[in-house]
Amino acid sequence: MRKKRVSKVLAVTLSTSLAATYLIALVGGHSVSAEQLPLKGQTITAIQPAAVPAAPSGPIDPKEVEAFADNYFGESLKKFNVPGAMFVVVQDGQVVLSKGYGYANKESKIPVDSNTVFRIGSISKTLTAAAVLQLADQGKIKLDQDIQSYLGGITIPNSTSKPLTMENMLTHMTGFDFPYEKDDDASPDLLNQENSLRDFLMDRMPTIVRTPGEAYQYDDYAFALAGYAVEQVTGLPFHEYMDKNIFQPLGMNSSHDLVTPELKARMAAAYDPEGTPYPEYGLYPTDMPQGGMLSTGSDMAKFMIMLLQKGKAGDRQMLSEQSVQRMSEFSVFAHPAIPITSYGFESIFNELSNGQYVVSKGGNIPGHASFTWLLPERKTGMFVIYNNDSELRSDLYAAFMDHYYPKSTQTPESVSSLTEQQAARYVGLYKDLHTPSFVTRITYNNGQLVAEDRYKLGNGKTTLKKIDPLLFMDDYGKKIAFLEQKDGGIANMYRPAKSPIAYSPKIQEKALFSDVSKESPYQLSIEKLHSLDIINGRDGRSFDPKASMTRAEFITMLLHAVGYPPSKSKSGYTDIEHHYAVKEIQAAVENHWLGEEPEGRFEPDRTITREEMAVILTRIPLPWPLSDEVRLAGQTDESAIKAVSKLIAAGVTDPVTIANSDGSVDFRSKAPLLRQEASYFIDKILFVP
Question: Which residues form the signal peptide (predicted)?
Fold first, then answer.
């Protein structure tokens, strides 16, 4: 088991809210199949982005660009509590601006400059994609061939009849069940450790459970696997291949996939949003194709210029024009109006793009956040990186696009209403593929669909206005797509408001349990969790709602609700080795849900109490209230007072919690946790707005 994490955020996954663009892009000069979109039963011919008219717009004048950046960062570093930032603009093969602002280390007053080293997080994926495509140019990798050919004996379990390809991996269309990183993959405990890419892949091995190429979900594991394929094809460690074939030829002499002593000496310190320094940390795996690279502003300028010059760096053709096209033009769509991803880049913040054709990529790793965006038709590229976890990048992007590419006057989208009968096929529950606890309920009200979940603005609700039968717009101007089945039913929803984003399959809601009354205050929660396959009945159609739960049953239920995979590591408990829930309990230990247990025993079959439940639930990283000052009545162990108070302060109480006339609250902490109560609390914490 790995120990305490650096941050609650995932170490290498993109943590920004991702948004849809409104353009249709060229996809490799050929038609986009229904499978590639995927839009069932359709073939849509890809078209070129609109020709860019000759105009003096854009970041052309170095002095003017510097004035814009000076003004922006002069205000925004303070606004977002960012210690230091690096901003780069390239245009038509030249660096227009490469300038640092603030401090790489605020304690030592070391300024940021073009040679300051940062961790670029998931922008590493664009460089990994470039390495794979370079080998494809040389005929050493076939993008449409079974990936097993390139894995040196590693076998990816596949429950479908279709092989996984490199094309699927570079466009996040793998079909993996658990594609994401864990949040302790960046940890001080990993410093000075060597953890191989192969060991990481074996440790985190997913199973292909959906047909590759059919459904999009942001996928870190896929890019780790792509990096390992580079190793196997070339016989070189991934970092060595990158150094010899990408970094050195481009003159990116301050970029690497490992923290070398020379780069470490120039690395920016990492800070949380409050300005507290993160401790120094290592990564798992040490050589991390999906998010572990280091670079500088001046180096990233060279990479952007190469892509914008159709793969040329000086007189050297680093990538073929076809490979650059694969990186700069979208190949996966949720709808013709909503492109999602190219090879290595994505469609991010495009509600802020003002109608421009933009491919982009963001990265997060504790204490460093980054964003790069390219306008290929204008031969323009930008890169920003800074040393805290704030969202300065989306604010910068909006300011930059408004300044250089202001929104033209456009006819408002034409929207129409739905009848209740027309709305019926959309109504239901949708569970995010990447993060199963992101569940959206679609309902119908007065001619419009209503989307409701825990993670949306506006008290969890937004209306969806119909633009066409599969395209809607929410209250914030973001477009939402529904994907049809061949029979006309709805298979998936794509809602670019989650982090990381993925398709959300529509869930087939299950019949009611025979022993759960419709009048029960617990009924909606029980049936929802049953439909989401989080809980099952005791036998046949009965649920046994008033039976108490064991500790193992609750942990298993919670793990399924959060969407974490069972663990292969050892927990240290001596009484769970042969228990049915051993892997779930070990996962609970890994995720820091459990405290110290006496004498190394977990007692999995002991009945769990309501206060024990509260302690475990409040260890899930959620935006809990800052204050947990609640006056408790009844008996609660001292070790559970804070957790119980936190639940009550958050308004998460059930019908048997007693609110006394004197303002005190009796949570009934010592009572056994019943199955109906467990369903209710998990629903209220994870799924109900």
Answer: 1-19
